[in-house]
Amino acid sequence: MTMQWQEHASLKPFNTFGIDVKARWLAQAHNDAQVRSALESAIQRQIPVLVIGGGSNMLFTRDVDALVLHMASRGRRICSDDGERVVVEAEAGEPWHPFVQWSLAQGLCGLENLSLIPGTVGAAPMQNVGAYGVEIKDVFAGLTALDRQTGELCEFTLEHCAFGYRDSVFKRNPGRWLILRVRFLLSRTLSAHLDYGPVRQRLQEQGIEAVTAQAISDAISSIRREKLPDPAELGNAGSFFKNPVVSVALAEQIRTHYPNLVAYPQADGGVKLAAGWLIEQAGWKGHREGDAGVHRLQSLVLVNHGLASGAQMQDLAQRIQADILERFGVALEMEPNVY
Ligand code: FAD
Ligand code: NAP
């Protein structure tokens, strides 16, 4: 398949915020050969390259003077199966949620808590995607990436990825590696994680006694549909800020003024605060300035009501950060990749 480079292409359909910026060039890569060909051409023409998947963790604040390479590679397969433990692999461009549903249909457990996360398989390791008490590091079996500095293929183990909370070696070195495919170690026996948020309660409400991975996936999907805006209807990139981990002393100081503080002690001795709760206490919930706003149900999600620019979204985010720092002494870090 020959590869087309589209000039001055709108990126509106390629980011879930629905921000209308243009890419100097846009191309779709369906396989490794097209990835290599695009990168080589870009080097020859001295054009920078920005790789994207579903654009669900991006905030574009300006036109992109680069080749935007959209990962459109597809394919998922079982690599090994000892009857209990099964390694599956998917190409970078595979949409994440259908991949999760495919794994469940094979009778495989491990990805159910990560249901309904938008985006692609290839981007999932970038921030070690996580939800409802599970992160991909918990089921990670390896990945294959192209080193863009050397052109060599690299195999990454769990250790190499240096996964942290919404973090990885890939996030800390943007543009260094292009992830081609990812492997997960799944299991035929369910090890259910139900203690996070309202998952157990939702299953009980549904009268489900024999809990299956598919039932957990369905319960989490229904909770998410109630709380989170669908990007097809209201532009957003999910949580706009990471949940901050602060010292016990700071958490206690905040609690003297806010006895209902939502705080989770961490294994390392810190305390994770719910950023959405802080933003809500500060009065930002449902706030709107033109088309840039804070979601009315979940303050951690910034939304584009239609025609907001990326710069307007960023400006709103920065004012929220300044306000939270002043009120609580807590520095909020943005989660999406800002370009
Ligand atoms: P993109 O936004 O396209 O890219 C993200 C970053 O990865 C960019 O820096 C890009 O350059 C890079 N990248 C993309 N593909 C590759 C590749 N193949 N190789 C190298 N670099 C690459 N995240 C969570 O962790 N948990 C959640 O529960 C969650 N819920 C969400 C809910 C909603 C409604 C939305 C809109 C977002 C949510 N997110 C969540 C954020 C987002 O969906 C994830 O981070 C997702 O993994 C991003 O995938 P993507 O393909 O859209 O990445
Ligand atoms: P929630 O249940 O209202 O909880 C608020 C925050 O408190 C969460 O973000 C979560 O942190 C933390 N939390 C809740 N229960 C916890 C527990 N038992 N132990 C430790 N921390 C706990 O959150 P929500 O907004 O509806 O999201 C539900 C899950 O989906 C969360 O895991 C969230 O991260 C994930 N999610 C992520 C995005 C994104 O874009 N990154 C978007 C939507 C949802 P953690 O975030 O650290 O889990």
Automatic annotation (TrEMBL):
<feature type="active site">
    <location>
        <position position="166"/>
    </location>
</feature>
<keyword id="KW-0963">Cytoplasm</keyword>
<dbReference type="Pfam" id="PF01565">
    <property type="entry name" value="FAD_binding_4"/>
</dbReference>
<feature type="active site">
    <location>
        <position position="335"/>
    </location>
</feature>
<dbReference type="InterPro" id="IPR016167">
    <property type="entry name" value="FAD-bd_PCMH_sub1"/>
</dbReference>
<dbReference type="Pfam" id="PF02873">
    <property type="entry name" value="MurB_C"/>
</dbReference>
<dbReference type="InterPro" id="IPR036635">
    <property type="entry name" value="MurB_C_sf"/>
</dbReference>
<dbReference type="InterPro" id="IPR006094">
    <property type="entry name" value="Oxid_FAD_bind_N"/>
</dbReference>
<dbReference type="GO" id="GO:0008762">
    <property type="term" value="F:UDP-N-acetylmuramate dehydrogenase activity"/>
</dbReference>
<protein>
    <recommendedName>
        <fullName>UDP-N-acetylenolpyruvoylglucosamine reductase</fullName>
        <ecNumber>1.3.1.98</ecNumber>
    </recommendedName>
</protein>
<feature type="domain" description="FAD-binding PCMH-type">
    <location>
        <begin position="18"/>
        <end position="189"/>
    </location>
</feature>
<comment type="similarity">
    <text>Belongs to the MurB family.</text>
</comment>
<keyword id="KW-0521">NADP</keyword>
<dbReference type="GO" id="GO:0071555">
    <property type="term" value="P:cell wall organization"/>
</dbReference>
<dbReference type="InterPro" id="IPR011601">
    <property type="entry name" value="MurB_C"/>
</dbReference>
<dbReference type="GO" id="GO:0008360">
    <property type="term" value="P:regulation of cell shape"/>
</dbReference>
<keyword id="KW-0133">Cell shape</keyword>
<dbReference type="InterPro" id="IPR036318">
    <property type="entry name" value="FAD-bd_PCMH-like_sf"/>
</dbReference>
<keyword id="KW-0132">Cell division</keyword>
<dbReference type="GO" id="GO:0009252">
    <property type="term" value="P:peptidoglycan biosynthetic process"/>
</dbReference>
<keyword id="KW-0961">Cell wall biogenesis/degradation</keyword>
<dbReference type="GO" id="GO:0051301">
    <property type="term" value="P:cell division"/>
</dbReference>
<keyword id="KW-0573">Peptidoglycan synthesis</keyword>
<feature type="active site" description="Proton donor">
    <location>
        <position position="239"/>
    </location>
</feature>
<dbReference type="InterPro" id="IPR016166">
    <property type="entry name" value="FAD-bd_PCMH"/>
</dbReference>
<comment type="pathway">
    <text>Cell wall biogenesis; peptidoglycan biosynthesis.</text>
</comment>
<keyword id="KW-0274">FAD</keyword>
<dbReference type="InterPro" id="IPR003170">
    <property type="entry name" value="MurB"/>
</dbReference>
<comment type="function">
    <text>Cell wall formation.</text>
</comment>
<dbReference type="InterPro" id="IPR016169">
    <property type="entry name" value="FAD-bd_PCMH_sub2"/>
</dbReference>
<keyword id="KW-0560">Oxidoreductase</keyword>
<keyword id="KW-0285">Flavoprotein</keyword>
<dbReference type="GO" id="GO:0071949">
    <property type="term" value="F:FAD binding"/>
</dbReference>
<dbReference type="GO" id="GO:0005829">
    <property type="term" value="C:cytosol"/>
</dbReference>
<keyword id="KW-0131">Cell cycle</keyword>
